[in-house]
Amino acid sequence: MGGMVKDLKSFNFSVYGRWFGYINIILCIALGIANLFHVSGVIAFGIISIIQGLVILFIEIPFLLKICPLSDNFIEFIKRFETNGWRCLFYLAMAIIQYISIAVMATSLIVVAVGLTISSISYAVAYTKHQEFQNTNIIKNPTDDDFPHEAVVREML
Fold first, then answer.
1. Quick check: is 107 in a domain?
2. What does pTM read for this prediction?
3. Continuous H helices in 35-108
4. Is residue 3 part of a domain?
5. pLDDT of residue 16
6. Residues 127, 132: Cα–Cα separation, whole Å
């Protein structure tokens, strides 16, 4: 709990964007599954939402890139989003996709679009304020000094 309070007091908007990213993982997957039960074109946007949630999972929790067997192309794609500017554009593009779902039918995917927009705005503010991209104090990054090396991770698994 102390790490979360420290994050909130940091006034670094990249940390706020990252926290909203964690919330977006849950929203994308849960509401994507919930929208699979419509009998319309919204099913496609539900599937896209689930995929978006999984991609955000790998972007916001880079530790998973080390332990999951993934293709090199996917890992290179994910590593492109290590700055505030790129993450802002990424979340904005994903939000636009979900806002388009309103044209088919107004569903709970609007919540996903709003959540993605909030993340995009947070990263945009961090980018315009020239704030350094910062990780949260709770989840460790593979580039941190105290992050376990690959051999330690393999032993744990």
1. yes
2. 0.79
3. 42-60, 63-67, 72-79, 84-104
4. no
5. 86
6. 8
